[in-house]
Design brief:
By secondary structure, this protein is mainly alpha-helical. The chain has one domain. The protein is built from 18 helices and four strands. Helix 4 crosses helix 11, helix 8 crosses helix 9 and helix 12 crosses helix 14. The longest helix is centred in the middle third of the chain and has 35 residues. It is globular. The two termini are 40 Å apart.
Length: 466
């Protein structure tokens, strides 16, 4: 009997009685208020974002068009694409699989599409510095075999902007019912904001069918654009910068690691929202448990795709293969590679196999921090050596002289801190304009699920209406 009471207490703590529809609206609309702490954090992040702009401008003034000095800017651009671009897939893929646990997390996952704005701005100076497709009537090695000379620059920007616009469209479409809730249950600028953006939403059957259609359409398009954008960025801003680097698996490795980073980003954001946003009533153990399992799976996939590419170079032993290993594995970034290997694969694998850590709120969040830092180091390992290759060697068959390790200068550090701060600031500002936890998703989850007892344990019974 003592065991049964203990189990019942734990389940009641993680699955409290579902709040009523009115309580959901009242709580989540009230959570959009900005307190003193929020304003202080926003001011600090805004100041750091301005310092990031200073870092980019200072880099442009001090080194100009020397591409060997822009590797860290390329690395932070790729990291934001990795961490922010993959996060909306947490709102897309589980929803397509009709996973009920994802409903409270879908809004925060969709908010990460705002980071694409910062990523697109960082891409602009890199596009200017990207070597031309044809130099002295010689076409350099890239995926653009017969394409016009403007192809790397135009299509790269179009892909990233298209990905960002699609993500924002998904975010806006899924937020329409909540904008209507802001219109009907708030005051001041939030009410005016909700009235304008709700577009006359009344919750009719036609509007709900249209909403589901838009979410499915934008979600599918986003996934296709995500893979395509990672293919272009990884090939044009990494592989094509190194003579002799030919790797058919690398773009997919880049995409899969983006999904890993996206899961880690959403996990960490949910923990912050639960801990400091007053959303403990809506973000339960279920979300962190499910994300922990996904993070564990994609950490194994990180190793699978890395090793699938690495083994080709290791056993190939051609001059180009040896140059690749010397540049990106055991050369100037050997410690970066070791750090990325431990933090992206070994540490999350070893930590998340333990049930006590995986089936918790704090455990997956801590592992998410480890993974995100590891992926930042991994992008530095990939992009800094790639951009350190002198431009006059780009037509060589393979790299004969391995550049020395390039350490970040003050402007690089300011750019990294400022870019990440700007991304977080956009997320915080968005959480003041619309609830960070979707009102209509929570209400739908409450209608479709209820706690039940199964044999000697407890669970949640979920209906599948469609």
């Amino acid at each position: 009997m003592a065991t049964d009471r203990h189990s019942h207490t734990e389940v009641s703590h993680e699955h409290p009685s579902a709040p009523s529809a009115g309580e959901v609206v009242e709580d989540l609309v009230a959570a959009t208020g900005a307190g003193v702490t929020f304003r202080r954090v926003a001011y600090i992040l805004g100041f750091l974002a301005v310092l990031g702009v200073v870092g980019v401008i200072g880099k442009a003034v001090t080194v100009g068009g020397d591409t060997t000095k822009w590797g860290y800017v390329a690395a932070v651009m790729a990291f934001l694409l990795t961490a922010g671009g993959g996060a909306p897939m947490v709102a897309i893929a589980p929803a397509l699989a009709k996973a009920n646990w994802v409903r409270p997390a879908s809004r925060i996952a969709a908010m990460f599409s705002l980071i694409g704005i910062v990523t697109s701005l960082l891409l602009i100076p890199l596009l200017v510095l990207l070597p031309s497709l044809v130099v002295e009537e010689t076409r350099r090695r890239s995926v653009w075999f017969e394409a016009p000379v403007y192809s790397p620059h135009v299509w790269g920007m179009m892909a990233l902007v298209g990905l960002t616009v699609t993500g924002l469209a998904l975010f806006y479409a899924s937020a329409l019912p909540d904008f209507a809730a802001m219109r009907d249950h708030s005051t001041g600028w939030r009410q005016r904001w909700g009235e304008k953006l709700s577009r006359g939403w009344r919750g009719t059957d036609v509007q709900w069918r249209s909403l589901r259609m838009r979410i499915g359409m934008f979600g599918t398009l986003y996934f296709l654009l995500l893979v395509f954008t990672h293919f272009l960025i990884s090939t044009d801003f990494a592989m094509s910068m190194v003579p002799g680097w030919r790797d058919a698996i690398f773009p997919m490795y880049h995409s899969v690691s983006s999904l890993q980073a996206g899961i880690a980003s959403v996990t960490l954001a949910l923990w912050v929202a639960r801990r400091y946003g007053g959303l403990e009533r809506y973000l339960h153990l279920d979300q962190f448990w499910a994300l922990g399992k996904l993070l564990f799976a994609f950490s194994l996939l990180w190793f699978y795709f890395f090793f699938s590419a690495f083994i080709v170079f290791w056993y190939g032993r051609a001059n180009a293969d040896i140059a690749f290993l010397d540049l990106l594995i055991r050369g100037p970034m050997v410690y970066g590679f070791a750090t990325a290997f431990v933090l992206c694969f070994f540490a999350p694998w070893w930590l998340l196999i333990w049930n006590r850590l995986r089936v918790s709120v704090n455990g997956p969040a801590a592992v998410a921090v480890v993974v995100l830092f590891g992926l930042l180091v991994d992008r530095v390992r990939l992009y800094v050596p790639s951009w350190s290759v002198p431009g006059d060697r780009i037509h060589d068959s393979y790299l004969t002289d391995i550049p020395a390790t390039i350490w970040p200068d003050a402007f690089d550090i300011l750019t990294i801190i400022g870019a990440v701060s700007a991304a977080v600031l956009l997320m915080l500002l968005a959480s003041r304009a619309v609830p960070a936890v979707s009102i209509w998703e929570v209400q739908q989850m409450n209608l479709l699920s209820r706690p039940v007892q199964f044999l000697r344990t407890h669970g949640v019974l979920v209906a599948k209406p469609d």
